[in-house]
Every structure is written in structure tokens, then in C-alpha cells.
């Protein structure tokens, strides 16, 4: 009996111990400590700061993009303002029937149509009658001129190529034909300013309004400030003055339609425009009627070198190059890689496609 009682007591003690352990395990979990709260708060603040930095970067990029758009818009507005200023389109009436309306070459393409339309409206407001417009620019006209527009692009001023005399005479013939149709008709010349001034001066000489090239330029100067014209433009005006002021018999003796052969080009003394200032390797280009016929332009090392004192002159053998119409010989040199510098040009007419009936100018009144 005693053994049974001892065993029963032992079992009861083990059950009580096991029950106590289960009760401990089933108690509610312990609440986090204050340190854990602080760690979670710091982590939350860090996440918020990172998100704010990211949003700030996105906002900054967006503001920069908007600022770039604003700057470009302001620059475009300044371009238009500098082109026209506060006086509107640049339109000058040299005479009641001869108008110069240059269009700036640097105007943005998106605003070219608006600028041209403003020019057209300004001309219509200042004059009555129909007009024919002659565009001397490389950029074509955009507005509708009722089939009274003529695209006659001239070589850019910086190209070193001069408009041919036959081209200038052809435009003058066309202008004179339109002016003779009706007394209220007038002509408008547009394009780069230097070309507009040249064409207006040519027309003044052609129509007999003035007798000398300088008088033609001065007449244009009375209406507007004109740019400095290159020597080749003055040369063309001098030749045209000779044509319109010479009687028919002498003009027939001067004008011919035979080709001329160029054998060589001689330049003396030898120019010294290389780096060491001891000679040169000239690049020569020959144009006939505005078309390039011959050039020495090739790899720089293959160009013929002329050095002092061995070469006292530059003698280039052309090999009988046939030329006609207006002949231009341009001499250039390589200042540095990919930079050609225009040195000088020789210009002379060899023959002209000229009809004597074109010189009956008394019916043209400007």
C-alpha cells in the first residue's frame, strides 16, 4: 500500500509540473520594448526621406525641362524681334515700281511662312496694283502670289561665286516685260539683302533710270542702309553699264559667242600664306556660267607646292580648259584642316547671250 501511494504521489507531481509548463507557454506574448519602437520610427523616417528625395529629383528634372522650353521660346521670340524690330517687315520702295523686301536667312523655319505673309501684307498696304515677286534666296517662297512669283536663286554671298551677267540680264528682261503690261504693275525683289541690292541696282541701270553704277547704289542708299557689296558685284554693275551705254554697232563688235581656251594661270609674285610663310599650295577653281569646270582641289599633300626662292611665281598648267559666258577663277588656300580661305578671284565675261531687242529700254519706266 505504501508503494502504491508513493507512485501515485509522484504521478501527481509530474502532472502538476507539466500543467504549469503548458500554462506558461499559453500566456500572451510580451509587448515590444521602447528600443524596438525607436528602431521602427527611424526606419520609417529613412523611407520617407528617400521617397522625398526621389520626388524632388523628378520635380527638378521636370522644372529643368520646362525651363529649357521657356528659354528656347524666348530665344525664338528674340530672333523674330531682332529680325523685324518694332517697325514690322523690312520693305523699301526704291521707286514706285521697284520694291526691295529682304527676308533674313537666319529666321527659324517654323516662322518663315509668317514672316513672308507679313511682308506680303505690308506691301499690299503700301501700294496698289499687281506685283510680281522675284525670290533670290535658296529658300523657296511659301505664300500664294497668283502665279506671279519667280524663283531665281543666286549663289550665297559667302560661296565666292558671283551671279552671272546673263542671269542678271534674264531677270531684268522678265521684270521689264511685266512692267510694260500695265502702268500700275510693280516688281518686288526678296531674298538676302546683298543680292536684293545688286538686283535693284542692275534694274536701275537696265531701265535707264541712272547711268552709273555708283548712282544706282546711292539711289538705293537713300531708301535704306545697304551692306558692303563684294568687288565682284561692282564689277558686274560696271559691265552692265558698258552694255547699256554702248551703241549697237560697237556692242556687236564687243559681243561674241566663241569659246575661249585657258592654258595656264600665272600668279606673280608667289603668295606666302603657308605656316612657315615661305610659299603656298594654292587651290584654284574655274567657273564658267556659274558651273565649276576645273579645280586643283584634292588631298592637301597632292597639291603642287611653290616655295621661295625656288619659285618666284605660281604657274599652273590647265591643259586647254574651254570656257564661255562669265568666267571666274577663284584662288583659295587651306588655313587649317577643313577650313578653306578665299584669297581672291578673277572675273571676266567671254561672251554673252545678248539680243539687241533686249536693249530697247525706253518703254520701261520705274
TrEMBL record:
Keyword Ion transport: no
Keywords: Membrane, Transmembrane, Transmembrane helix
Record region (Disordered): 1-41
InterPro entries membership: Prot-tyrosine_phosphatase-like, Tensin_C2-dom
Amino acid composition bias (Polar residues), ranges on this chain: 1-10, 17-30
Membrane-crossing residue ranges in chain numbering: 331-352
Ranges of residues in domain C2 tensin-type: 257-366
Protein name listed in UniProt: Protein kinase domain-containing protein
Amino acid at each position: 500500500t505504501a508503494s502504491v501511494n508513493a507512485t501515485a504521489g509522484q504521478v501527481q507531481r509530474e502532472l502538476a509540473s507539466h500543467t504549469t509548463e503548458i500554462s506558461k507557454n499559453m500566456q500572451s506574448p510580451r509587448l515590444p520594448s521602447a528600443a524596438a519602437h525607436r528602431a521602427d520610427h527611424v526606419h520609417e523616417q529613412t523611407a520617407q526621406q528617400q521617397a522625398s528625395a526621389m520626388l524632388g529629383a523628378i520635380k527638378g528634372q521636370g522644372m529643368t525641362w520646362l525651363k529649357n522650353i521657356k528659354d528656347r521660346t524666348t530665344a525664338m521670340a528674340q530672333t523674330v524681334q531682332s529680325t523685324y524690330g518694332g517697325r514690322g517687315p523690312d520693305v523699301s520702295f526704291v521707286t514706285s515700281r521697284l520694291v526691295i523686301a529682304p527676308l533674313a536667312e537666319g529666321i527659324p523655319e517654323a516662322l518663315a511662312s509668317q514672316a513672308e505673309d507679313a511682308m506680303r501684307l505690308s506691301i499690299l498696304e503700301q501700294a496698289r496694283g499687281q506685283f510680281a515677286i522675284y525670290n533670290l534666296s535658296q529658300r523657296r517662297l511659301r505664300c500664294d502670289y497668283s502665279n506671279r512669283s519667280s524663283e531665281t536663286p543666286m549663289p550665297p554671298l559667302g560661296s565666292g561665286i558671283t551671279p552671272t551677267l546673263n542671269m542678271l540680264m534674264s531677270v531684268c528682261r522678265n521684270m521689264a516685260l511685266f512692267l510694260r503690261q500695265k502702268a500700275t504693275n510693280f516688281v518686288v525683289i526678296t531674298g538676302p539683302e546683298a543680292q536684293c541690292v545688286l538686283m535693284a541696282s542692275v534694274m536701275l541701270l537696265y531701265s535707264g533710270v541712272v547711268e552709273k553704277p555708283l548712282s544706282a547704289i546711292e539711289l538705293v542708299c537713300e531708301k535704306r542702309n545697304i551692306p558692303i557689296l563684294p568687288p565682284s558685284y561692282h564689277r558686274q554693275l560696271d559691265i552692265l553699264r558698258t552694255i547699256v551705254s554702248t551703241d549697237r554697232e560697237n556692242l556687236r563688235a564687243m559681243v561674241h559667242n566663241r569659246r575661249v581656251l585657258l592654258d595656264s594661270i600665272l600668279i606673280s609674285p608667289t603668295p606666302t600664306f603657308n605656316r612657315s610663310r615661305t610659299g603656298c599650295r594654292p587651290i584654284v577653281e574655274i567657273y564658267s556660267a556659274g558651273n565649276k569646270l576645273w579645280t586643283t582641289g584634292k588631298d592637301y599633300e597632292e597639291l603642287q607646292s611653290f616655295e621661295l626662292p625656288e619659285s618666284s611665281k605660281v604657274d599652273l598648267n590647265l591643259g586647254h580648259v574651254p570656257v564661255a559666258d562669265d568666267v571666274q577663277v577663284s584662288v583659295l588656300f587651306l588655313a587649317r584642316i577643313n577650313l578653306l580661305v578665299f584669297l581672291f578671284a578673277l572675273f571676266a565675261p567671254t561672251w554673252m547671250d545678248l539680243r539687241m531687242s533686249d536693249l530697247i529700254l525706253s518703254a520701261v519706266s520705274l
